[in-house]
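Quiz preparation item.
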């Protein structure tokens, strides 16, 4: 594959990860591996097609194993000293939410999915406390329990 095709593929994979899908940073490292393979030929390293694909696969795997988890935790809030400021906040509930059921709520200008993890129904017109954040889902409990 020509060097410029590797570069385009790498940039496309990284762009897809950042703007279109949430693949948990797998595509970022596959894209970085493609970019690095693409940079080899302009730097004077000539490789056959089979060698390119083998080097690409090995490099993508090594990058994911060595760096993905650390980067994912750092960017997603798992780093030491990180506190999620949404936990403990209150959200307005617009429809009754029984235990285990979900609804849509507005928080900080965005719509979120909220799941009632408490033992009591959260009635419409009341507020619920955010107990946990799991990706784009808020786990809420009733304020009436307190």
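Solution:
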């Amino acid at each position: 594959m020509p060097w410029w095709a590797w570069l385009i593929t790498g940039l496309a994979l990284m762009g897809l990860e950042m703007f279109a899908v949430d693949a948990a940073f797998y595509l970022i490292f596959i894209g970085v591996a493609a970019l690095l393979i693409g940079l080899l030929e302009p730097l004077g390293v000539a490789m056959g097609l089979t060698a390119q694909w083998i080097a690409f696969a090995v490099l993508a795997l090594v990058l994911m194993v060595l760096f993905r988890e650390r980067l994912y935790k750092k960017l997603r809030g798992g780093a030491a000293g990180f506190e999620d400021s949404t936990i403990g906040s209150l959200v307005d509930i617009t429809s009754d939410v029984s235990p285990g059921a979900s609804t849509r709520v507005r928080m900080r200008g965005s719509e979120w999915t909220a799941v009632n993890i408490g033992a009591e129904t959260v009635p419409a017109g009341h507020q619920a406390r955010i107990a946990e954040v799991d990706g784009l889902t808020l786990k809420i409990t009733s304020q009436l329990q307190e």
